[in-house]
Amino acid sequence: MADLTERDVTSRVPNLVDEKLKTLSRREPLAVRPGTSLGDCLALIRETGIADSVFVTDEAGHLRGVLTERDIFGKLIGTQADLGQPVESMMVEHPFTLNIEEPISHAIELMQTGRYRNVPIVDDDACLVGVVRPVDVLSFLAEAFPEELLNLPPRPHQQMVAPEGA
Predict the structure, then answer these.
(1) What is the model's pLDDT at position 154?
(2) 87-113: string of b/e by CB count within 10 Å (b at 16+)?
(3) Which residues are 138's β-sheet partners?
(4) Reported CATH class of domain 12-27+96-151
(5) Residues 6 or more apart from 121 whose CB is under 8 A from it?
(6) DSSP conformation letters of 86-139
(7) How far, in Å, CA of 25 to CA of 107, rounded?
């Protein structure tokens, strides 16, 4: 294996982040219809165990809003909130979205500047087609350097005195 230099990484990463979002493995969004109760949204999150945000879509799949983990912890947990209220009473309407044809760099920028952990991805008809999380971007980037990443020591600048293992 050739040593991977910082220059090698920085020369390859710009091309990778210019790839379109459609090349990423996206997560299936946890979607509900308007009128779903807050209690049902929380139960759905618990049952599926795959999401921390609930996306509200209409019958055609257009994104209408999102109930985020921050909303849940900040406004619901430890309060006497009525969990029978519809999700619309607490959701963020018209959340930032990215089109599936936009570059990955736009998702990275939105995650950094807006502190978003779940970026909804829509198609040209504004229908929700997936959710991108930071781990999805990191996995994509890591796949570009499989040999280099798999062979890194726990601390990249660490020099092993003796090989481990048998």
Answers:
(1) 65
(2) beebbeeebebbebebbbbbbbebbee
(3) none
(4) alpha beta
(5) 21, 26, 97, 98, 99, 100, 128, 129, 130, 131, 132
(6) BGGGTSEES---EETTSBHHHHHHHHHHH--S-EEEE-TT-BEEEEE-HHHHHH
(7) 13
Q: Which CATH architecture describes the domain 28-95? A: Roll (3.10)
Q: What pTM, to 2 d.p., does this model score?
A: 0.72
Residue type, 48: T
Q: How many CA atoms lie within 13 A of 87 on its CB side?
A: 28
Domain boundaries, the chain: 12-27+96-151, 28-95
105-163 pLDDT tens trace: 999 999 888 878 889 999 999 999 999 988 888 888 877 766 655 565 666 666 667 76
Q: Are strands 63-67 and 54-57 parallel, antiparallel or unpaired?
A: antiparallel
pLDDT tens profile 48-99: 877 778 999 999 999 999 998 778 777 777 777 788 889 998 898 988 999 9
